[in-house]
Amino acid sequence: MTHGHPFWFILIWVCVVWYSTTTIYVAIRGAADIKAMLRRLKLKDADRDAR
Amino acid sequence: MPHFSWPIDGSIVGLYLAITMIAGLLVRKYVSRVEDFLVAGREMNLYLGIASLAATEFGIITCMYTAQAGYANGFAGAFPGICQAVAMFVIGVSGFCVKPLRDSGAMTLPELFEKRFGKFVRWLAGVVIVLGGLLNMGVFLKIGGDFLCLVCGFDLSYLAWVMGALLLMVAIYTILGGMLSVLVTDFLQFIVMSAGLLVVTVMILNHVGWEKIVATVEQHHGAGGFNPLANPNLGWAFVIFQILANTAATLTWQTTISRLLAAKDSSTGRKVYTRTSFFFVCRWMIPGLWGIAALAMLSPDVRAGLADPSLHAMPVFLATFVPVGLMGLLIAAMLAADMSTNSSYMLGWGSVIYNDILAPFRRKAWSHSRGLLWNRCIVAAIGVYLFVFGLLYQIEGNVWSYLLLTGSIYLSSMSVLLIACCYWRRANNWGALGAIILGAAVPIAHLAMEKIAATAGFAASIGKEQAGIAAFVAAALGMIIGSLLKPRTTA
Q1: Residue A33 and residue B201: Cβ atoms within 8 Å?
Q2: Assign residue B486 a region: left if phi > 0, alpha if psi is -120 to 50, beta otherwise?
Q3: What is the pLDDT of residue B82?
Q4: Least CB–CB distance from B47: residue in A11, A15, A26
Q5: Which residues are B318's β-sheet partners?
Q6: How far is Cα B334 from Cα B340, in angstroms, rounded to an integer?
Q7: How confident is the model at residue B490 (pLDDT cuts 50, 70, 90)?
Q8: ipTM reported for the complex, 2 dp
Q9: Tens digit of pLDDT for each residue in B341-360?
């Protein structure tokens, strides 16, 4: 199955599996991060205006 | 015939571009200070950081030079990715240099150096960083344009128009929204880019097949296609230079450390490093596989007819391999990759020009609105430079070697300065100046010799890798000798 090159065979499939999983996970958690970041920036701005 | 269909693939690309531009422009209202523009108010969290770093460090240029490495050197060509992944992981876990850097509160590396080595070193470090960074980035737009023309089946005479359109889209949201727009668009671009990369890779593994891929590497490269030390194009000098340069890039590459500096604290920044580390293997392995597949699937006649076979084979192969519909996803993915890279790089080098090179000219603190205006003008000027340089400059040899050598102009000296700044008490401004001057002189001399007919042969006989290693050695010697030569002041 690996045609004599198990290191590169395993590495390419680990890349595909790791990258797919990470993309889905980061897509979900990253969206929450953006919301939180914009909320904090808005609060900071309001705080600066109030001073 | 390329498979690009204007009604189907064009609509997919258009939809992606519209969503990205709207998102990039919507967040500009949150930018009211220079800190918001350059480091997103230091409010970046972990997962946004991972998406942004991954999207930034993968552009069309990356896809082209890693595919070129796969085409020209087989799997062994992916060795630099393994080096960088190891460096990212070790540095992220240990906090080596990056913890003191983030804890210092600096917005750029030279700002940290000023605290230890004085104002002139900060200014000179800024000049060297920008010089190396802009020479490096100067070819991005042209190679991105090459890819898009070839994969869509456009004539290369349309290259300037494709480059112009690409630049204009990126420049608009980067100029208006700075790092905040870059982070938000990077997130969208990471998802689109990843989807395209994964779908095409799985298609290649299914349709071309592992057996044919391995057989092609064995036929064209022999054992050297699997082991960099057995490859006559690579060898020990290549391996040593990759380890040095990729470690230095992890420590000092402006667009990488700007994610660390935009993180809300050093712990978050370090986690971004460790959790993104394996992506650097993917960014070499995946397009490298595309390059090998191009070698396997294109006939010798087609390859021989290409202007630059090792560079252009991959997009020409994809143009006929990827079906209509998926072609739209592939082009959207590549546009996403390129836009996120160009925007971050424009902002990264722009931040050093504003923060460090122009610092001595700001005798009084500038107002936030004036600072923002200057930053926006600098980003616009970098855009114009990219367009002109990309059209005029012709790379000698392969793209990755050029990028690494131009990067070495500052990677060598800045990594030495950073390590000395954080961990060597005897380091001083004499050593810092010695490291900057010697570290920059070697790669600049090599690049200049390549362009002069009388010395081009000599430059080629030295090789880019050896010149790069010499730059690191020279920078380290400059730091050590300079620091030891300066008389110690007694308290």
Answers
A1: no
A2: beta
A3: 97
A4: A26
A5: none
A6: 10
A7: low
A8: 0.92
A9: 888 889 888 989 998 999 88
